[in-house]
Amino acid sequence: MLQTNINDHIQQEGPRAMTSKTHTAPETAMRPIVEVARELGIADDELELYGKYKAKIDLGVLRRLKGAPSGKLIYVTAITATPAGEGKTVTAIGLSQALGRLNKRVCVCLREPSMGPAFGIKGGAAGGGMARLVPSDEINLHFTGDIHAVGAANNLLAALIDNHIHHGNRLGIDPRRIVWKRVLDVNDRSLRNVVIGLGGPGSGVPREAGFDITVASELMAILCLAQDLQDLRDRLGRMLVAYTYDQKPVYVRDLAAHGALTAVLKDAIKPNLVQTLEGDPAFVHGGPFANIAHGNNSALATKTALKLSDYVVTEGGFATDLGAEKFFDIVHGYTGLTPDVAVLVCSVRSLHMHGGVEKGSEAEANVEALRRGLANLDHHVGILRKFGLPAVVAINRFPTDSGEEIECILRHCADLGVRAAVSEVVAKGGVGGIELANAVLDALAHEASDFRPLYDWNLPLKEKISVLATEVYGADGVDFTPQAEAELTRLTELGFGALPICMAKTQHSLSDNPKLKGAPKGWRLLIREVRGSLGAGFIVCIAGEMMTMPGLPKEPAAERIDVDPDGTIRNLR
After folding, report:
1. In the beta sheet, which residues pair with residue 342?
2. How many other CB atoms sit within 10 Å of the CB of residue 13?
3. Residue 179 and residue 103 in one domain
4. Please, are residues 71 and 306 in contact by the beta-carbon 8 Å criterion?
5. Residue of 472, 516, 123, 144 whose CA lies nearest to 327
6. pLDDT over 60 (residue 568)
7. How confident is residue 570, by pLDDT bands cut at 50, 70 and 90?
8. Which of 5, 72, 135, 330 is the most buried (most CB within 10 A)?
9. Same structural domain for residues 494 and 504?
10. Model confidence over 494-523: pLDDT tens digits?
11. SS3 label, residue 89
């Protein structure tokens, strides 16, 4: 039935002929990745194949295209996350499929899924329904091994630190002041705080330690910001790992470890190429979370895509106050990448929850709750306007949404003076995103971007934090624990006061309290902890009770995942 609908649409609208590139068949009908690459302008000898349907792109492609013009960058973000779902990733994929159907040369650039959420509560991150990447299961699990490489490099460094202490501690590292943690790409709350080195002198020096999830590692942030192998090596050398007994900083370069870490990551830095379900090219590279890291895919992937296509659709993790803000204030500053338009994703269900509806009732029609929840949408539109970006609201439609509710959002957006379009990409693929694609193209044609970061990096660290708290989150001000105050002072004295801020904050609220929905007022942001990610080039501020190693839910997704005798994985979505 769906195939018939798509054919009917093409016959009526006629924007794009049905070719071998456009299909809605199962993953068994995927196009060979060499075919996708050739159509994009990538030569066979610039590919490193991982089977028939995945490939890494040689860094020489970007060097070869250095003088070529860049396409338009479409940045997809969302309102504040709720359990009801907003549909940001499916919207990004579906929008790229729709632009392809309109005969636009387009790529989508996304982050690599972490196995933590895949086996936890969120599921995979390759999209869903008819708006997804393929081969989905491979992308959601081991993919090309990039996240494993980050974990291996991170833990090699941890082992080298402890080995240095065990063999005489020439640098005078204070075991109580080691700031580098081990990582694991699984949600495991039991490893947040551990004691290592037990078992006698041959097993190292006993000390307190801990684990973060792999995608929160500074190495992941560096991988996504590095411009080439040399930049990668330089950034790795600048990472802060510990303090000495006389409280002097110890960097990776002091341990002579940056060369080995670069060797482990030399293939991981290359962007990955896959495809959408409709055969459009997709770069999937890097995987930092936006609630505990900087939340955007690699700059190398996005830059390469911009040279190869006229339109690039990318998305940042969670909402405008998280992934988008970090792209605008951090990624832009290091890479020069500048969005031309923003797409703000919402759903009727999520607006119900921001209007006070409890989980379990969000699918029921409730216009009054919807109207209350629109305060959250308004706040995120306001954030995008502060960055000077044209915005298009994408209403991710569910089958249970009433026409009255959809019309309510459309009228509200019209009153705000912002474009809005209904998206049905999950059910219909690219066809369901035609209305949204046309709205985005209209915004690009008639509304010029006046993009600007929100703060000057040269402001003192506490002032930059205050700007984020008041201008982005809507707080009345900021409070700091003594530990956070001390670390901010120390990092400033070490000469790192001009670095941008990467806030680790709950994704479930604009505030630092996940229970506060809508657009909360009358609260203050609490900075509990500060970490210097000096190789990545930003200061991580941990707000409220945010954890950098998540835990599994009561009923983790892992309990539903299984494998058929033919090797087909079930329920990995």
Report:
1. 75, 391
2. 12
3. no
4. yes
5. 472
6. yes
7. confident
8. 330
9. yes
10. 999 999 999 999 999 999 999 999 999 999
11. helix
* 163: Cα within 13 Å, side-chain hemisphere: 9
Cα distances (angstroms) measured from residue 455 to each of 198, 333, 471, 527: 47, 11, 10, 19
Average pLDDT over residues 29-43: 96
Question: How far is it between the farthest Cα atoms of the chain?
Answer: 77
Domain finish residue from 239, 265, 291: 265
What share of residues in the chain are helix, strand, coil (percent, to 5)? 40, 20, 40
Is 36 within a domain?
A: no
**The residue to which tokens 């195939």 are assigned:** 3
Q: 454 vs 86, which has greater pLDDT?
A: 454
Separation CA 530–CA 542 (nearest Å): 6
Statement: residue 224 has pLDDT above 50? yes
Of 415, 446, 477, the domain-final residue: 446
Residues 6+ apart with CB under 8 A from 159: none
| φ, ψ of residue 541 in degrees (nearest 5) | -115, 120
Give the pLDDT band (50/70/90) at residue 555. Answer: confident
Tell me: do 293 and 259 sit in the same domain: no
Query: Does residue 4 have a pLDDT over 50?
Result: no
* 59 confidence band (pLDDT: 50, 70, 90): very high
Site of tokens 């835990």: 551
Pairwise CA distance, residues 372 & 532, whole Å: 39
Judge whether residue 335 has pLDDT over 50. Answer: yes
The Cα–Cα gap between 279 and 108 comes to: 11
CB 565 within 8 A of CB 205: no
CB within 8 Å of 511: residues ≥ 6 apart? 473, 474, 475, 520, 523, 525
Which backbone phi and psi does 175 adopt, to 5 degrees?
Answer: -60, -20
- On whether both 220 and 281 belong to a single domain, the answer is no
- Report the sign of the C-alpha dihedral through residues 291, 461, 233, 204, in that order: negative
Number of domains into which the chain is organized: 3
Give the CATH number for residue 232.
3.30.1510.10
What's the predicted TM-score (pTM) here? Answer: 0.93
Structure tokens at 416: 């705000």
Going from the C-alpha of 413 to that of each of 320, 347, 451, 506, the distances in angstroms are 17, 13, 21, 27
Q: Which of 180, 165, 166, 156 is nearest to 245 (CA)?
A: 165
- Note the pLDDT of residue 123: 66
| Residue 453: inside a domain | no
For range 150-158, the mean pLDDT: 98
Per-residue tokens: 507: 């994704």
Q: Do the domain assignments include residue 509? A: yes
The tens digit of pLDDT for each residue in 243-295 reads: 999 999 999 999 999 999 999 999 999 999 999 999 999 999 999 999 999 99
* Cβ-based neighbours of 201, under 8 Å, separated by 6 or more: none
Does residue 158 share a domain with residue 210?
yes
Instruction: Say if 550 falls within a structural domain.
Output: no
Q: Are residues 306 and 191 in the same domain?
A: no
Instruction: Look at residue 571 and give its three-state secondary structure.
Output: coil
Per-residue confidence (pLDDT) for residue 2, from 0 to 100: 31
Do 120 and 212 have their domain in common?
no
